[in-house]
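Hi Y.,

Following your request, here is the sequence exactly as I used it, all 318 residues.
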Amino acid sequence: VAGAGILSVPVAIAKLGWLAGGVTIVACLMINVHISILLWRVFMCFPQTRSYGELAAAVFETAPDWQRRWVPFVLSFLQGSYMFSMLGVNVLTSGKSLGMMFYSTHVCLPRWCSIACCLLLPLVVGGKKLGSWKWLIWINSFMLLATVLIPLIFMSVQGVESTRPPHSTFAAVGPEIGLLVLVSSTGDLAYAMTGQSMLVEIMAEMRSPEEFPRAYTKLSLPFMCFAFLIVGFGGYYFKGSEASGMINENLPFGVLLQVAALLLLSHMLVTYVVKSTVLCRSIQNAYAGTALGRIDERITWIYLVVVVLFSSWLASQV
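Below is the corresponding structure, written out as tokens. Let me know if you'd prefer a different format.
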């Protein structure tokens, strides 16, 4: 449930300071776990549901008529809108990663994004379920971890005297901390930890969904805690209050930048496949009883993923 937003965690820590930032990270993780467990408890009451919309419909089954009609629709719309916006970000970041990999090749960003879409097409066409590419999940975790460790190791070798700007500071509490900074930084951290948007779909495909709390607290939580604290503290220590952008952007042109860009590209491609699968499947299920649903299921799936992929490319260029 940790995405590429983790690469910008040092920026949030730079605003808060290492102590205030550390406390905020832990607090956000605890809130993340609490919400996820609450969602799991609701899901276990209606284990036959396969999506957020279906879960909302089951929960509001005995509610007034207008709530039964509108709540599932609004929730599905919000989930789909968020997914689609993230797909555009994934395509854009994939294009930037290709540009960093081939930094000596003069190609505009829209073309790099188009190439990224060509790489994505066989993956999204070939998988209709989250479990279709099980090996991608393990690769995704490795790629994300390696992406953040490469710049941290590089900066540790260079030394803080070389990496931290002269006027940059390193403090327990940021000197400009206030309500606006706290809200902004907390929002950045919350975005980086966002995973609840797909939890229902993930639990629906688990062989033993009753094991979700154990997997989440004993596997996912320690990984996220380690990754966020290491990246946040490490990036802030080496760049100080002048930390900006994604941590991998601190690498100079060369092989290390290309390797880090390749890892980030791989992570973005996997993330796109997962979110696209959830979005396209929800659309396909929503139109199951219409003329679109009467077309061959495989043809419908290919049509949906191609349209969503092209739309994501357009959104990435806005």
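Residues 65-101 form the longest helix (37 residues).

Thanks again,
Q.
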